[in-house]
Amino acid sequence: MTRPTPLRRDAQRNRERLVSAAREVFAERGLDVALDEVARRAGVSIGTLYNRFPTRTDLVAAVFADREETVIRIAEYALSMPDAWAGFAHLVEQICRMQAADRGYNDLSARRVPQAAPPRGHALMTEILARARDSGALRADFVLEDMAFVTWAIARTIEATASVSPDVWRRHLAFILDGLRAPAAHPLPVPPLQAEEVARIMRDC
User: What confidence tens digit (pLDDT) does each residue in 128-178 have?
Assistant: First the structure.
């Protein structure tokens, strides 16, 4: 098996500068910012950017690769908490806090779903939800696909209120969490979305 050829030192420096610049620009202005601005801030040509990252998706993946590890650490801590509801709430609150702190990550959260997490993250989130349901704290009909509604809703609140009241998303999330408690549950009018249906929605966004 042929191993990938390591980048030359100057090419590696350019890549690191581009990722760093993109992280700053995405955090300030969101994922749809012109990539010319990323190249300008990195001090390289737009051709160099496309040489290192042929598509915007490639650049976004490089910028947010570490966030997947962060979510895994958050989920592992949530599972270690003795109280199953507290663990579930901690997971949701910390993910929403990451959204509020970074406009680019907020955009990314609005465009992807929990099932898109790496296998370890997916397994941890599934276990956190099952544990909270089994404890009787989380409503029994809440499934992983429903997590998309939480992240989409908070993403929109953050986007709409960031310049006026940047912490008000916490109030919105408190309403959502109260509505997810088992004692507040009422029968739902329709079944949950299936994984393939959520994926189709995201493709059309």
Answer: 999 999 999 999 999 999 998 999 999 999 999 999 999 999 999 999 999
Q: Are residues 113 and 33 in the same domain?
A: no
pTM score of the predicted model? 0.84
Q: Which residue has the tokens 């994984």?
A: 195
pLDDT of residue 68: 86
Task: Tell me whether residue 59 is in a domain.
Answer: no
Q: How far apart are CA 115 and CA 97, in angstroms?
A: 20
* C-alpha span between 148 and 140 (Å, rounded): 17
Domain that holds residue 1: 1-54
Structure token pair of residue 103: 């406009």
What pLDDT does residue 20 have?
Answer: 96
- What DSSP string describes the chain? -PPPPPPPHHHHHHHHHHHHHHHHHHHHH-TTS-HHHHHHHHTS-HHHHHHH-SSHHHHHHHHHHHHHHHHHHHHHHHHHSSSHHHHHHHHHHHHHHHHHH-HHHHHHHHH--GGGS-HHHHHHHHHHHHHHHHTTSB-TT--GGGHHHHHHHHHHHHHHHTTT-TTTHHHHHHHHHHHHBGGG----SSPPPPHHHHHHHHHH-
Say whether both 190 and 164 belong to one domain: yes
CB atoms near residue 46 (< 10 Å): 14
Domain count, the chain: 2
Q: Is the pLDDT of residue 1 over 50?
A: no
Q: Which residues pair with 181 in a beta bridge?
A: 138
